[in-house]
Design goal:
Structural class: mainly alpha
Helix content: over 70%
Shape: flat
Radius of gyration: 29 Å
Distance between the termini: 89 Å
Number of strands: 0
Order of helices and strands: HHHHHHHHHHH
């Protein structure tokens, strides 16, 4: 959304909530446009407008939406998986588990991507189909729903970030991944050297032992 479109959004909010904006100075309104433009720089105008309309349709207190509230409405409108509760997600998984005795590969393929990310693999679905029903409905269900809720919350918060913040976060994640790779590489080199040294010690000990027996 460009700055002209942002100004149009803010003008619409001002018209919808005149009491809230009546005492705002020109400078404050300009600052609001700058902030909303920065926070919605990667969202299309149509999505932002739809998010605000969705908020207005259910808001009854007479206050305009915050940036976070509009982001949440946009997520619900454009990413249906975010609207699914953990109970609804588990119901889908449990149905797949019931059919996973022999068809677990096909059942896994049918799962929404957000659910696949929590289940992990077709083999997990197959294993869940073999355990006791009571354990499935308690331990497994509880763990799945907790993980699903946390993942959806994380993805929703990430999706709401401005593009500049996403790029910053991605750069940090890539840097951390490179550091982990270097650490693993150093450990493997150390382990290879350690194993090599250990092999040398074994050979030396055998040679010394053989020399002693010959002596």
């Amino acid at each position: 959304m460009n700055k002209t479109e942002t100004a149009k959004i803010m003008a619409g909010l001002k018209a919808a909530y005149p009491q809230y904006y009546k005492d705002k100075s020109k400078q404050e309104l300009e600052q609001a446009v700058e902030l909303w433009h920065e926070m919605f720089d990667s969202e299309p105008y149509a999505e932002v407008a739809a998010g605000i309309k969705a908020f207005m349709a259910t808001e009854t207190k007479g206050f305009p939406p915050s940036i976070g509230q509009v982001k949440e409405k946009i997520a619900l409108l454009t990413r249906p998986q975010y609207a699914m509760t953990e109970q609804e997600a588990w119901a889908i998984v449990k149905k797949a588990v019931r059919n996973s005795a022999y068809e677990y590969l096909e059942e896994y393929k049918k799962l929404p991507e957000a659910i696949k990310a929590i289940v992990g693999s077709p083999s997990v679905l197959h294993e869940w189909g073999l355990i006791d029903l009571r354990e499935l409905d308690t331990v497994v269900a509880s763990n799945f729903m907790r993980s699903y809720r946390a993942r959806v919350q994380h993805e929703r918060e990430y999706a709401a970030l401005p593009e500049s913040v996403k790029q910053f976060a991605d750069a940090i994640a890539q840097r951390m991944a490179r550091l982990e790779e270097r650490s693993e590489c150093r450990y493997e080199i150390y382990q290879d050297n350690y194993d090599h040294k250990g092999l040398e010690d074994i050979i030396r000990a055998k040679l010394e032992n053989g020399n002693e027996q010959q002596g």
